[in-house]
Each structure stands twice: as structure tokens, then as C-alpha cells.
Design goal:
107 residues; mainly alpha; elongated
């Protein structure tokens, strides 16, 4: 999935740029434009995460002096909560599985 984020969202803009030429203000503008273009919250958060991983690694390997993502607010993404089933509903699933175990296919 990260390679898809790189290929679809990041490479067209940053693929040919030296890492040490990319500034926080550019990343803010880039993310803002992606949002205006209709990119979803989850994708924006992934785009930021991939950028941050790239820059963190470059800093750790002494390729650049600082991570420009540290100056950029991470896009917010709140995953939707899964609906929990009740104990009774959960027991019904187990019962259905038991019933299916005794069914034999007809030929």
C-alpha cells in the first residue's frame, strides 16, 4: 500500500526532487491541495505517514539535516468504530455455525 501511495500521490510531485530541497511549507501546500482535490482523510494521513517515514530514514542515514514533516501538522483521520455485537447476537453466530456443520451437500 505504501508503494501505491508513493506512485500515485508522491512521485508525480516529489519523485525527481532532492530530499534536502523539500521544505515544510511545500508539504503543507501539497497536503492542502490534495484535500481540496478531494483526497480522503485516510489517504491524506497515509500520504503524510509515507513522507514522514522517508524523511525520518533520510535523517537517520545523515542524508538530510532535518525532517520537514516535523513542521507540518499531521492530517487527522479517525477510523469509524466497528459496531459491537451483543452477547446474544454472538451466541447466535456460534449456533448457526454448529447448525451448518451438520448439513451435508446433496448430489
Amino acid at each position: 500500500q505504501y508503494s501505491d501511495i508513493w506512485r500515485k500521490h508522491l512521485a508525480p510531485t516529489f519523485g525527481q526532487r532532492p530530499l534536502d530541497d523539500i521544505r515544510a511549507i511545500e508539504l503543507e501546500r501539497f497536503l492542502s491541495q490534495k484535500k481540496k482535490d478531494g483526497t480522503g482523510e485516510r489517504t491524506l494521513a497515509l500520504v503524510y505517514s509515507v513522507l514522514n517515514m522517508i524523511f525520518k530514514r533520510a535523517v537517520n542515514q545523515h542524508l538530510i539535516g532535518y525532517n520537514p514533516c516535523s513542521g507540518v501538522e499531521k492530517p487527522e483521520y479517525a477510523p469509524k468504530e466497528a459496531e459491537a455485537v451483543s452477547v446474544e447476537e454472538g451466541a447466535g453466530v456460534g449456533k448457526a455455525e454448529d447448525d451448518l456443520r451438520f448439513c451435508r451437500p446433496t448430489r
